[in-house]
UniProtKB/TrEMBL annotation:
Belongs to the IF-3 family. The keyword Disulfide bond does not apply. SUPFAM superfamilies: Translation initiation factor IF3, C-terminal domain (SSF55200), Translation initiation factor IF3, N-terminal domain (SSF54364). GO terms for biological process: ribosome disassembly. It comes from the Bacteria. Residues 49-134 form the Translation initiation factor 3 C-terminal domain. NCBIfam families: infC (TIGR00168). PANTHER family: TRANSLATION INITIATION FACTOR IF-3, TRANSLATION INITIATION FACTOR IF-3, MITOCHONDRIAL. It comes from Mangrovibacterium marinum. It holds the Pfam family IF3_C. This is Translation initiation factor IF-3. GO terms for molecular function: ribosome binding; translation initiation factor activity. One of its GO terms (cellular component) is membrane. InterPro entries: T_IF-3_C_sf, T_IF-3_N_sf, Translation_initiation_fac_3, Translation_initiation_fac_3_C, Translation_initiation_fac_3_N.
Amino acid sequence: MALAHELELDLVEISPNADPPVCKIIDYQKFLYQQKKKQKEMKAKAVKVVVKEIRFGPQTDEHDFQFKLRHAEKFLNEGAKVKAYVFFKGRSILFKEQGEILLLKFAQALEELGKVEQMPRLEGKRMTMFISPKKKK
């Protein structure tokens, strides 16, 4: 402790359970600053997953389907996940099969760019499906 005081640094206990306890003489504020900096750097390098949504109706016609398909292709090329869903309003819930067929057709059209992460599943008035981008080689 006298040596640390003489050098105007801090005495930090590294391993208190060791016999004898291990201590180190360092500038504690500088140590904390470097730790914070490392964490910030690691956070910046982490991959952020973006989820883009595309909404269909159960009776979406071909032109609208192609239009939304092009958007999905763009999203997958940018590396974002795509959440495609069919929204059923009122009595259109009777056309569950049409919604599922539409989503499967959508997945098949995007087969080269992405893979289906979750098959179409009905949740309340929505039938959702997730498509994630394929890894680029």
